[in-house]
Amino acid sequence: MSASRTERLLNLLIAxxxxxxxxxxxxxxxxxxxxxTSTEAAFGRMFERDKGELRHFGFEVETVTDTGWxxxxxxxxxxxxxxxxxxxxxxxxxxxxxxxxILAAQLWEQAALGSAARNAVRKLQASGGLLDAELPPGxxxxxxxxxxxxxxxxxAIHAQHPVSFRYLAGSTGQEETRTVEPWGLGSRFxxxxxxxxxxxxxxxxxxxxxxxxxxxxxxEETFTPPPSFNVREQxxxxxxxxxxxxxxxxxxxxxxxxxxHSVPFDGxxxxxxxxxxxxxxxxxxxxxxxSGFDRLSVPYRDAETLAAELASYGPKAxxxxxxxxxxxxxxxxxxxxxxxxxxxxxxxxxxxEHPKRTRKRTSEDQLKRMLQLVxxxxxxxxxxxxxxxxxxxxxxxxxxxxLRILICSGLPEGYPDDLLDIRWDDDHVYIFEDLxxxxxxxxxxxxxxxxxxxxxxxxxxxxxxxxxxxESVTLKLMAAAGEEGLKAAAVSGPEVAPADSATLATARExxxxxxxxxxKYLAPQRDTVSERDVDPHRLYSMDSTWYLEAYCHTAxxxxxxxxxxxxxxxxxxxPASSAANPAGGFPVKLFTPNDDDxxxxxxxxxxxxxxxxxxxxxxTAALPDGNMLAEIRFGSADWLPMLAAQHGGAVRILQxxxxxxxxxxxxxAALAGYEEHAARQxx
Length: 683
Known about the structure:
Blueprint: H1 3-17, E1 23-24, H2 25-31, H3 40-56, E2 62-65, E3 77-80, H4 95-106, H5 114-126, E4 139-140, H6 148-159, E5 163-168, E6 175-188, E7 191-198, E8 203-208, E9 217-218, H7 231-236, E10 244-251, H8 256-260, E11 263-264, H9 278-285, E12 293-300, H10 303-312, E13 317-321, H11 323-341, H12 363-379, E14 383-384, H13 385-391, H14 396-407, E15 421-423, E16 428-433, H15 445-457, H16 469-481, H17 483-487, E17 491-492, H18 501-513, E18 515-523, E19 528-542, E20 545-552, E21 557-562, E22 566-575, E23 598-604, H19 611-614, E24 619-622, E25 628-634, H20 640-646, E26 651-655, H21 657-682
Parallel strand pairs: 4-19, 6-17
Antiparallel strand pairs: 1-3, 2-3, 5-6, 5-9, 6-7, 7-8, 10-12, 10-13, 11-12, 14-16, 15-16, 18-19, 18-22, 19-20, 20-21, 23-25, 23-26, 24-25
Helix pairs in contact: 1-12, 4-15, 4-16, 5-12, 5-15, 10-11, 10-20, 11-21, 15-16, 20-21
């Protein structure tokens, strides 16, 4: 839509909402469209397109026919939109329900449904249904962004478009192109799964997103999903993969984290060998470990998940068996090395007041925003214009452009009192005439999905003492969302409850009481275990992985500690100091910037584009081949070769050049370990 079409659609909507008996097409053509040049047929096509656009926004245009005349006679047919058309029903929430609802909306932060969650909250605020709530102190669970594939699949599921992608089949280990009618997307066993109809196989299939080896292509055609499809019910029937054991040679004294859940492999007879299948035992027993390496039996369920971890260890780990895991790790290392050695693009970031990556705004976004602006302003009179712009995630100029269109919109050929009346002369925004736009429109399917999936993910979170608020607010939102709420069952998020609730409870109590903590912590990037005295500030999660943000007296600065890497945690008996406090409110960042951070430029493929958000890129730039440049600050850059290996060809280091060269050398050393292993097998 062009900007002029946005204004025309807004005026058409106001006209059809504010007519009791309906308006004839000739009246609309003259008074709303001001069209006197096009033919009747051309105007008819434009009018039908506009009706379809309003229907896309949820406003059904009613057709009223005079008695005794045919319904296809444009001279006698009248059009209107009912006053209750697509209006969000009143939702009354208790303070406890508001608490869990805000937590559910904040879950998405930068994930695919983050903007939809913010829009939904804004609609509830505009309707007066969402009250200020007191959130649990220092606690914010979040859902991890699942990358571009997740975003593309959610779009395709809700629009009912088939998709195609390259997929690594678990049964054969071969890459294949799959064309799928996507029915639902959900998390199970810590993995995201797509459930849909595989056209080549003619049946329902489950696809793990970690096995996608290409970007997702959304096809233009449409399909009809099964009625009453619920992805959580489908995934509940999916059996967990059995525990298997891999044989891995690990550099002596290294990889303490891997050793923590592994046991020595002793020629097929020692502890850990009994669980390793006979074929692996025979293969491992036939070849002793390299000098300076220990042989371990490593339990795992998903080969691709373990392959990503083992690839990140580079030359410190070599898979001996099984062959499929060996090949998966080597494939990642080879792809990372090939990408690192490819010709480099010029590093050029455009000068912009918005350096971070954002989706290009469209006129459709503008009309959606304006339909939210009016009810928001009605219920928030006198807010400063900068605060309004911040609430809607736009610049002041973009907001003023919206307001100028709104104040020129109103009833066809009406008097000044028949126009939307909004004033911001003193930088505080007031609305005096809303023309029946004061109630927000119903939730879109994305908005309903963001809130309902978020509420579902909060189940089981310890310490969320809200009685039956979680269930009651879910029922209220389902009723308010209507049909869109039923469609939300196509997406199911991960549960955010931590594996170790005792550690979470200890940290939460210390935050509440202002107590200092002593912890013993495993730092896998440094491969060390250390003791720290810390002043805890906040707890937050990525899915079920929880982090403690605290001031570390050893590092003399803010640090983030993964709860599952804390080996011991107890109060010191001393109060926490106020040496440093985290800046700002939510959202909490996983990485606290410092003046001495390393500034690194990465190149990301479309498959790895989500890393720009994961690591809070300060600047991004699109490349002609669809890849992306991302400038990111890291407290320590020494571990970045591990990141490149883990993501196997989806990310590489461009700057600083010394770090890029070190990554290429590190990847070469990792591959050399596998080549040496292959040569020893031949001998």
